[in-house]
Specification:
about 525 residues, binds thiamine diphosphate, about 35% helix, binds magnesium ion, six-stranded parallel sheet
Length: about 525
């Protein structure tokens, strides 16, 4: 005889899903009991933390990740982080226990009365098995859906008595078949379509490529670089898609497109053809009047997401595998006679400065101190432009942000990133406001000795909201100032090696020693100047 719990664990094991992120409750005990020794459970003290850790872990390993939380309230707490995972298109298998089936009708304590509704609309699919014996098959269904492009989170509710149910031999044999099935995504891109697009690129006077997070996620990086170089196209990163999609230190790279229609058309002025690969067209915020594209610019959009293709306000779209498309375009592209476009301004030099530091000084110092293979995670409001100006990684999967922009991603994501990439330095670049949404990630980092380095820009305010208030002409908004935060004291209380930096020289020394310490997390707080509004 096999229990549903054993069959469930076996399914996860067969799919290589043995690292779980979670926060447990009574309704998960029957799943978690005698947790197998070949599995790893990473505890977060509030549900945003396991979801955020799993999100980064999945993106960096390019594999799905498992999250287990506690019935309805756990899912409620997880929702902000689930929103980020949904926009990030991260394949997360989220499970939560539920009250025993025969106690649900009375709404006994912790009954999730409508479990499949709770995570919507931020999951691709949500289910509760109709009967205990179906739990492994429903989970297999969830795993395959999560990992089908466009990928995303899925949810399965597991009533606690299901795990203890026994499968008879026939049921166990059926489950074993489901466990071992493979679902493969056939890829490819028609050569004639690639030739048509390349003919248009060749005929263009001044083409541009606009790339996005899916170039990193679907490993189209090398092909996109080859295409840009062969066609001497300038390259931008589309607004707010989570990864840069291109080496930020490459001479063809122009930086992040600003997230406003008018700003985009201004940046693209003079480009007669724009090819967008692996990004939505476009994620705008705020409303900046202007045409979507400059007069005379045409746009070709290549995405694996039918919804992205359908909702774009301009351009013709092709729904395809992103990596295959980039490879086919590279194979079809002819070397151009066009001369190389001028590169963007160099990285600003590090200057000695004392606190309060200008964001530009702080991030120049941090960028100078960290090695080239650093994996950056940033969630730093008004600092983000200074960060991408000063810090220009050249490798794929090197600068992670939340495409959803729901705060509470940065700290857990940095911890999950360091677990996924133990041999790379991971440095989190945080605003003092942003770091407090999922602050207990510091405990997880300290408890599991995860050697992430965290740099906090403490301007004692929600600076970017003040900037937005000016843009939106909404004076007098309350709740913009954050006096009295003790970032170093808070981090130290969770067991993190925490320091206050008073000069750029101290920032450099502390970042270097924080990265060198592979035994524990380090936090460096620096006072920074408030935004200029
Ligand atoms: C869950 C969530 N709540 C609120 C916001 C709105 N918000 C966006 S940026 C921001 C302030 C960020 O402040 P901080 O991290 O201190 O950076 P600063 O702008 O001060 O540099 C806030 C509150 C959000 N994006 N997500
Ligand atoms: Mg701030």
């Amino acid at each position: 005889m096999t229990s549903v719990r054993q069959a469930t664990l076996d399914l996860f094991r067969t799919h290589g899903l043995t690292t779980w992120f979670g926060n447990p409750g009574s309704s998960e005990l029957t799943l978690l009991e005698d947790f197998p020794e070949d599995f790893r459970y990473v505890l977060g003290l509030q549900e945003m933390v396991p979801v955020g850790m799993a999100d980064a872990y999945a993106q960096i390993t390019r594999r799905p990740a498992v999250v287990n939380v506690h019935t309805a309230p756990g899912m409620g707490n997880a929702q902000g982080a689930l929103y980020n995972a949904f926009v990030n298109k991260t394949p997360l298998i989220v499970t939560a226990g539920n009250q025993r089936r025969f106690m649900q009708n009375q709404y006994c304590l912790l009954t999730n009365i409508d479990p499949t509704t709770v995570p919507k609309p931020f999951v691709k699919w949500a289910a509760e098995p109709a009967i205990a014996s179906e739990a492994p098959a429903v989970l297999a269904h969830a795993i395959h859906l999560a990992t089908t492009p466009p990928m995303g989170p899925v949810f399965v509710s597991l009533p606690m008595d299901d795990m203890q149910a026994e499968l008879d031999d026939t049921q166990a044999a059926d489950v074993a078949v489901v466990r071992d099935r493979k679902v493969t995504h056939a890829v490819g891109f028609p050569a004639d379509l690639a030739e048509q697009i390349c003919t248009r690129i060749e005929a263009a006077t001044s083409p541009a490529l606009i790339v996005g997070g899916d170039v990193d996620r679907y490993d189209a990086w090398d092909a996109v670089i080859g295409l840009a170089e062969r066609t001497q196209s300038v390259v931008w990163t589309a607004p707010i898609t989570g990864w840069s999609g291109f080496p930020e230190n490459h001479p063809l790279y122009q930086g992040l497109l600003p997230p406003g229609a008018g700003w985009v058309s201004q940046a693209l002025t003079g480009r007669d053809l724009v090819v967008v690969i692996g990004a939505p067209v476009f994620r705008y915020y705020p409303r900046v009047p202007g045409p979507y594209l400059p007069q005379g610019t045409s746009l070709i959009h290549i995405t694996n997401d039918p919804d992205e293709a359908a909702r774009a306000p301009v351009g013709d779209a092709i729904i395809a595998d992103v990596r295959s498309a980039a490879q086919a375009l590279l194979a079809a592209a002819k070397p151009t006679q066009r001369s190389a476009p001028p590169p963007r301004a160099p990285i600003p030099a590090v200057e000695h400065a004392e606190t309060p530091l200008k964001p530009e000084s702080l991030w120049a110092a941090v960028g100078h101190a960290a090695p080239a293979d650093t994996l950056w995670v940033s969630e730093a409001g008004s600092n983000e432009i200074a960060i991408t100006t000063a810090i220009r990684p050249g490798n794929p999967l090197s600068h992670l942000t939340a495409a959803g922009e729901g705060l509470g991603f940065g700290l857990p994501a940095a911890v999950g990133a360091q677990l996924a990439a133990p041999d790379r330095p991971v440095v989190a670049l945080m605003g003092d406001g942003s770091m407090h949404y999922a602050i207990t990630a510091l405990w997880t980092a300290a408890h599991y000795k995860i050697p992430v380095t965290i740099v906090v820009a403490s301007n004692a305010e929600y600076g970017i909201l003040k900037e937005f208030g000016k843009w939106e002409k909404t004076p007098g908004v309350p709740g913009m100032d954050l006096p009295g935060l003790n970032v170093v004291g808070t981090a130290a209380s969770y067991g993190v090696d925490a320091h206050e930096a008073h000069t750029t020289d101290e920032v450099i020394k502390l970042v270097e020693s924080g990265i060198a310490d592979r035994e524990r997390p380090t936090l460096i707080n620096a006072r920074t100047t408030p935004v200029d509004v």
